[in-house]
Specification:
heterodimer; A: mainly alpha; 2 helices; 90% helix; B: alpha+beta; five-stranded antiparallel β-sheet; three-stranded antiparallel β-sheet; 7 helices; 9 strands; DUF5657 (chain A); transmembrane helix (chain A); transmembrane (chain A)
Chain lengths: 73, 248
């Protein structure tokens, strides 16, 4: 009985850990993406370069926000 | 008709950059000639650096669109290791149609969460987890699209008055910049195959060089015949400069 009653909580904990790991990896990816955009804009400077940098930074902050949310969810 | 012919002759005879204002009445004729793939005198003079910055705005192929795949004498383009006196003649990237595959792949990815509830009982999860999953999914889709867009946008080919440059970003943090001097170009081959490539006028331009990198490939670029003609014009100009002893 004890095992059955504690099972859902453990399942949610496992799901939460999986989500944290997924979002953490994605946040790392978004940091790498900023680095990539920086490298690209250094190599070729074009009219849209600043906007693309801004999008990459925004993408990182959304990922970071999601990571913080899932940590405290 | 008469004034058009007259003004064309007038522009052709002028040489200094300051006196080369293009007559707007010639623009229609220019666009008609563009389909033949022949370079016009104004384009030749732009390649040779004899046209002023304001005049190139009327030339066919010149655009202010930052997403253009073919931009003749682009305004705001600079690249790594560019010489101060070097001038970008042509900016090329793959034809926009080459993006159709990943753009079409986005649609099922966008609507997938709507069908996912039929496959997995998401309603059993707490609302916070459902929200995180949904936001994460769309962030992932956005990241995928951004990655593909960056791959298209920054993998460019640049033709300057001195060099041919191929910029390749192979993966996230690896870049490959290949360049060859115009006078090292030995052969230029245009490859166009298939109905779509022919219909939308894009193809590969293979530049055989005497440099360390023997071949530079411009993949799926628009108007490959014109690109080949511009390269030929640049080679002729370079030979002329050598004869006249004006090589930089």
């Amino acid at each position: 009985m004890e095992i059955l009653s504690s099972f859902p909580d453990q399942t949610f904990l496992v799901i939460k850990v999986i989500l944290i790991v997924l979002v953490a990896f994605y946040t790392i990816f978004s940091v790498v993406l900023i680095k990539q955009v920086s490298l690209m804009t250094q190599t070729v400077q074009m009219a849209l370069s600043k906007s693309i940098k801004a999008v990459a930074v925004l993408h990182f902050f959304v990922s970071l926000g999601l990571l913080i949310f899932v940590l405290f969810a | 008709m008469m004034p058009t012919v007259f003004s064309a002759k007038k522009v052709n005879s002028a040489t200094p950059a300051a006196s080369t204002n293009l007559n707007p009445s010639r623009r229609l004729g220019d666009l008609e000639k563009q389909s033949t793939g022949q370079l016009k005198d104004d384009e030749r003079r732009a390649i040779n650096g004899q046209l002023g910055d304001g005049d190139v705005h009327l030339l066919p192929g010149h655009t202010h669109s930052p997403l253009a795949a073919y931009n003749f004498c682009p305004d705001k383009v600079a690249f790594v290791n560019e010489d101060p006196e070097e001038k970008v003649i042509l900016l090329l990237r793959r034809h926009p149609l080459t993006n159709i595959g990943w753009i079409l792949a986005l649609f099922p990815l966008i609507i997938l969460p709507g069908f996912a509830t039929a496959l997995f009982p998401f309603e059993l999860l707490p609302v916070e987890f459902q929200t995180v999953l949904l936001v994460f999914w769309y962030l992932f889709v956005f990241g995928f699209a951004l990655q593909r867009f960056l791959g298209w946008f920054f993998n460019v080919n640049i033709i300057s008055d001195e060099r041919v440059i191929d910029v390749n970003f192979v993966n996230l943090v690896y870049r490959e910049v290949t360049d060859a001097n115009v006078d090292e170009i030995q052969e230029v081959t245009v490859e166009m195959g298939g109905a779509i490539w022919t219909f939308f006028n894009f193809g590969n331009v293979l530049v055989q060089t005497a440099a360390d990198v023997p071949r530079i490939v411009f993949e799926a670029v628009p108007q490959p015949d014109r690109v080949a003609k511009i390269l030929r014009e640049l080679r002729l100009q370079e030979e002329q400069e050598k004869i006249e002893g004006r090589v930089r």
